[in-house]
């Protein structure tokens, strides 16, 4: 290891997906000297994998749509666990944020009169998703990336942050990381830090997530003393590829169902009609005939159950497979071939067409896809104040998937991309405001930096025999089998014990080779984050003794009133994970009224 | 740079598994000071792509094997490399499409400096990106919206499919074998970017002079190598580069101005003799493939579309 170079900025944003880019743009536009630090190359963040679209009540297809309808859909999709204020801000501001992307060069698909076309998605009352075929995330990240580059934001690529730094008053004032290419350490001094590191799916075996999604930001916040909330709420996307084995878990966009695709079991039955829960019965079609008419007429008909929120669909697929009615490779069939012409399918879903053709030798214009649930998204995350995205630690902000609250216990498709730009902007603005009101340079404790560096490089000197790849594989097996889509107390407790063993093994990992671009070392450090968030998820899952959204307890089916109004809060105190139930913010009466009426 | 092909081709010291069953992988290992192909053997698994095999080697035999990847779904463009000498995304190249009876060679992209193993320094591309004059939209309609016809953005959307894998940059002979040209040549990826800006219905900036003068589009002599390797099947040459060249001609067909520019301009485009495909000396880079892999026509880099 050679010297530890120091850089000082007003605002340091960690993570360069949609939320990080948008935060950095806002901070820079407000005049703050802004650094954007990311674990991969710029433009490769997990946001590029988002396919279906950005939810925003633009009302360009259905004039009946407005922010109140979007707000209501979001809260009901989240089974009312959402932070109401975040859901409100999101619904109010998403349209402006989408139009802003156009101003930065994004080209969304158009309506006949030249406005932004919107597509149907699960849980949304009206066609609401602005999109570009099935590669909307790529469009969004490029528009933001070009904007960020054009306004001169300093980008630090392939730099992994290992710990945050705090001043004597307990406020975050920087971060320590290292360059993946060289292994050299780097210190960032900052007046405010924004976490925008995304999710944690890599702790599970079958996931849509890319290698970066190791819960880094949640762990950094936890280690810095911040609260996490609702970590039990993990979304299993109903439609991941199930075959071939190497592609298992890969995302199949909900856009397939939005554009008319239907789910069938091995008997050819559209089984979703058997899984309409009372919570959604009033707004869901009861018959195939009714559901099929909804695509063209959303006012007089109700949507088909294939477009129920993701948690409902994932559980239904799980049940069909368990009952022996699954497809040959342990999924169910997703059929668009019999619903749309080959030309339409190739135009609407080009990357799905490509993905199945190339990876599975399947032509989706003629053959149904085999799909099953896959770990996709963390609804929980760092606890933030709704208007400012401030965490419970001074100087630290969080936006995007790393933050909790916005999506309650289940996120609607399309609400993630809009979350990124709505709250990314707000986090960047709050961070810049704080930074611009503080003068001077961060006073950084050399001892803190030395300790962090020492700990991060200790893997090279360990005397043990553990191997990070093996520990990671065992962690994924543990989370997949014991903290998966259906949970039960005995297994969760078993998981908790296994996580303790895995943490012990992880600390004994030995890294072969040197510090230059050494994935074995990077994985050992990512494991620290994955183990921290896995512990929080498991503890919260034990504590929430009910089933709600992305958290399903076989031993406690259904909602329970005593959990309706509480967040599960996890924090680290003296090296121990603590869990507490704390009341969630209460919705004002004028908004609560929106939920009193029937859905029609 | 020493390439220890003898070592790479030699069987490993352990008792070998039946050769017909095992995958034999030759991965380039090393850094900017040199390196060689190392051989790894492992049992095949159903439906694997090249990146899966590389990951299995990493997890079981070479924990410090450096490889860049993110999504493993062909959407992020991180895992670009040369597989049997052919530039490709490792995550979208199925093992079943490669000849089973001979070793599979994987080497880093050749147009970029080596960092370590399969990872190259692609920072050149990010530097070029900073030079592109940004999008400058016209004002919105009075109701706060922009209106664009789908037919007017179809071409732009084709260009927006680019995942920045930089394979087009890697095969472009203007820079693949001529490091010095990187100073004055943006490369296919950025001609696509410039074309998308030039054809954007809302954009108001004229970049044509800049494209000709500073981005070096004249160096491109339309061999279509970039188009052939594009994993997103963007028609880089026909729809972006030729279209840009035509626009430049339109803007510059003024004989006096043309003569003036010709006298003060930078050197003329590279001739055919200088433009060689996938061969020629690289800068501290491995050869495109091992000799035995090159014997098979299927694994030899394809012919350029229209010749150099």
Structure description:
- Chain A is α/β, with parallel strands linked by helices.
- Among the domains of chain A are: 237-375, Flavocytochrome C3, Chain A, domain 1; 446-563, Up-down Bundle (Methane Monooxygenase Hydroxylase, Chain G, domain 1).
- Chain A has helices at residues 18-29, 67-77, 84-103, 136-150, 216-223, 255-258, 278-281, 288-294, 310-322, 342-348, 350-360, 415-436, 446-457, 468-482, 489-507, 519-543, 589-592, and strands at residues 5-8, 11-14, 34-37, 54-55, 118-119, 129-130, 154-156, 159-166, 172-179, 185-189, 192-195, 228-229, 234-241, 262-264, 332-335, 369-378, 381-382, 396-398, 566-573, 576-583.
- Chain A has a 5-stranded parallel β-sheet, sandwiched between helices. Chain A has a 4-stranded mixed β-sheet with strand order 1-10-9-8. In chain A, strands 17-12-19-20 form a 4-stranded antiparallel β-sheet, covered by helices on one side.
- In chain A, strand 19 (566-573) and strand 20 form a beta hairpin.
- With 308 residues, chain B is of the alpha+beta class.
- Chain B is 32% helix and 11% strand.
- Chain B has 12 helices and 7 strands.
- In chain B, the strands form 2 sheets. Chain B has a 5-stranded mixed β-sheet.
- In chain B, a hairpin with a 2-residue loop joins strand 3 (80-83) and strand 4.
- Chains A and B meet through helix 3, helix 4, helix 11, helix 14 and helix 16 of A and helix 2, helix 3 and helix 4 of B.
Helices, strands, pairings?
The complex is a heterodimer of chains A (600) and B (308).
Chain A: E1 5-8, E2 11-14, H1 18-29, E3 34-37, E4 54-55, H2 67-77, H3 84-103, E5 118-119, E6 129-130, H4 136-150, E7 154-156, E8 159-166, E9 172-179, E10 185-189, E11 192-195, H5 216-223, E12 228-229, E13 234-241, H6 255-258, E14 262-264, H7 278-281, H8 288-294, H9 310-322, E15 332-335, H10 342-348, H11 350-360, E16 369-378, E17 381-382, E18 396-398, H12 415-436, H13 446-457, H14 468-482, H15 489-507, H16 519-543, E19 566-573, E20 576-583, H17 589-592
Parallel strand pairs in A: 1-10, 2-3, 2-11, 3-7, 11-18
Antiparallel strand pairs in A: 4-6, 5-6, 8-9, 9-10, 12-17, 12-19, 13-16, 14-15, 15-16, 19-20
Helix pairs in contact in A: 1-4, 1-12, 2-3, 3-12, 5-16, 10-11, 14-15, 14-16, 15-16
Chain B: H1 5-9, E1 23-31, E2 34-42, H2 50-60, E3 80-83, E4 86-89, E5 104-107, E6 114-116, E7 119-120, H3 123-131, H4 150-160, H5 167-171, H6 173-176, H7 188-198, H8 208-213, H9 225-229, H10 236-252, H11 255-264, H12 291-294
Parallel strand pairs in B: 1-5
Antiparallel strand pairs in B: 1-2, 3-4, 3-5, 6-7
């Amino acid at each position: 290891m050679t010297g530890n170079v120091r850089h000082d900025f007003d605002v340091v944003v960690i993570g360069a997906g949609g939320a990080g880019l948008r935060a950095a743009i806002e901070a820079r536009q407000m005049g703050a000297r802004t650094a954007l630090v990311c674990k991969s190359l710029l433009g490769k963040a997990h946001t590029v994998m988002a396919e279906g679209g950005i939810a925003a009540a633009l009302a360009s297809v259905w004039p009946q749509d407005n922010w109140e309808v979007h707000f209501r859909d979001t809260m009901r999709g989240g089974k009312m666990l959402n932070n109401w204020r975040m859901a409100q801000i999101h619904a109010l501001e998403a349209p402006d944020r989408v139009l802003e992307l156009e101003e930065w060069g994004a080209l969304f698909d158009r309506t006949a009169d030249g406005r932004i076309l919107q597509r149907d998605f699960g849980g949304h009352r009206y066609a609401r998703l602005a999109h570009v075929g099935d590669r909307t995330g790529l469009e969004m990240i490029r528009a933001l990336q070009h904007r960020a580059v054009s306004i001169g934001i300093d980008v630090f690529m392939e730099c992994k942050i290992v710990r945050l730094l705090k001043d004597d008053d307990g406020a975050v004032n920087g971060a320590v990381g290292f360059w993946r290419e060289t292994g050299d350490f780097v210190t960032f001094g900052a007046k405010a830090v924004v976490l925008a590191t995304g999710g944690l799916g890599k702790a599970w075996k079958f996931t849509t997530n890319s290698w970066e999604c190791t819960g880094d930001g949640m762990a950094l916040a936890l280690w810095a003393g911040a609260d996490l909330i609702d970590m039990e709420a993990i979304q299993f996307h109903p439609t991941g590829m199930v075959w071939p084995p190497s592609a298992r878990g890969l995302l199949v966009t909900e856009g397939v169902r939005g554009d008319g695709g239907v789910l069938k079991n091995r008997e050819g039955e559209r089984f979703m009609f058997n899984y309409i829960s009372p919570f959604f019965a009033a707004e869901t079609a009861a018959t195939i005939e009714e559901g099929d008419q909804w695509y063209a007429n959303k006012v007089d008909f109700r949507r088909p159950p294939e477009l129920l929120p993701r948690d409902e669909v994932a559980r239904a697929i799980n049940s069909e497979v368990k009952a022996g009615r699954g497809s040959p490779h342990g999924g169910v069939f997703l059929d668009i071939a019999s619903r749309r012409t080959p030309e339409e399918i190739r135009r609407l879903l080009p990357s799905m067409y490509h993905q199945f053709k190339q990876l599975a030798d399947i032509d989706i214009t003629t053959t149904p896809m085999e799909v099953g649930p896959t770990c996709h998204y963390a609804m929980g995350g760092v606890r933030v104040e709704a208007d400012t995205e401030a965490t419970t630690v001074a100087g630290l902000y969080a936006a995007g998937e790393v933050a909790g609250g916005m999506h309650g216990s289940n996120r609607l498709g399309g609400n993630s991309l809009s979350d990124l730009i709505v709250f990314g902007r707000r986090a960047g603005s709050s961070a810049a405001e704080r930074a611009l009101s503080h003068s001077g340079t961060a006073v950084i404790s050399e001892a803190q930096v030395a300790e962090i560096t020492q700990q991060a490089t200790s893997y090279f000197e360990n005397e043990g025999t553990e191997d990070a790849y093996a520990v990671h594989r065992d962690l994924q097996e543990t989370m997949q089998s014991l903290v998966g889509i259906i949970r039960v107390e005995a297994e969760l407790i078993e998981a908790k014990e296994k996580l303790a063993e895995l943490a012990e093994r992880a600390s004994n990992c030995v890294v072969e080779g040197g510090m230059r671009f050494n994935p074995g070392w990077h994985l050992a450090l990512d494991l620290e984050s994955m183990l921290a968030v896995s512990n929080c998820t498991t503890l919260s899952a034990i504590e929430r003794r009910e089933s709600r959204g992305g958290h399903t307890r076989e031993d406690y089916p259904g909602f329970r009133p005593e959990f309706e109004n509480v967040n599960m809060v996890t924090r680290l105190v003296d090296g121990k994970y603590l869990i507490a139930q704390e009341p969630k913010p209460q919705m004002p009466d004028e908004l609560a009224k929106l939920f009193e009426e029937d859905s029609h | 740079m020493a390439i220890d092909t003898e070592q790479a081709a030699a069987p490993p010291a352990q008792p070998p598994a039946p050769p017909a069953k095992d995958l034999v992988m030759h991965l380039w290992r090393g850094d900017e000071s040199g390196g060689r192909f190392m051989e790894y053997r492992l049992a095949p698994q159903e439906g694997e792509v090249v990146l899966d095999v590389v990951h299995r080697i990493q997890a079981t035999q070479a924990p410090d094997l450096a490889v860049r990847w993110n999504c493993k779904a062909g959407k992020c463009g991180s895992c670009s490399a040369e597989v049997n000498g052919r530039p490709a995304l490792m995550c979208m190249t199925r093992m079943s499409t490669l000849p089973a009876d001979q070793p599979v060679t994987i080497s880093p992209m050749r147009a970029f400096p080596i960092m370590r193993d399969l990872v190259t320094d692609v920072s050149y591309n990010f530097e070029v990106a900073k030079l592109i004059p940004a999008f400058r939209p016209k004002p919105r309609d009075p109701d706060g919206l922009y209106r664009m016809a789908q037919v007017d953005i179809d071409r732009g959307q084709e260009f927006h499919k680019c995942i920045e894998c930089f394979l087009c940059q890697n095969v472009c002979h203007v820079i693949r074998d001529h490091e010095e040209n990187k100073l004055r040549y943006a490369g296919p990826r950025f001609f696509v970017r410039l074309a998308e800006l030039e054809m954007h219905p809302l954009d108001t900036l004229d970049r044509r002079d800049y494209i000709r003068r500073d981005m070096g589009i004249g160096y491109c002599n339309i061999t279509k190598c970039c188009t052939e390797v594009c994993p997103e099947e963007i028609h880089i040459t026909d729809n972006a580069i030729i279209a840009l060249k035509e626009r430049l001609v339109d803007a510059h067909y003024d004989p006096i101005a043309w003569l003036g520019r010709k006298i003060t301009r930078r050197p003329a485009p590279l001739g055919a003799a200088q433009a060689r495909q996938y061969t020629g000396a690289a800068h501290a880079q491995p050869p495109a493939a091992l000799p035995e892999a090159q014997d098979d026509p299927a694994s030899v880099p394809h012919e350029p579309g229209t010749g150099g």
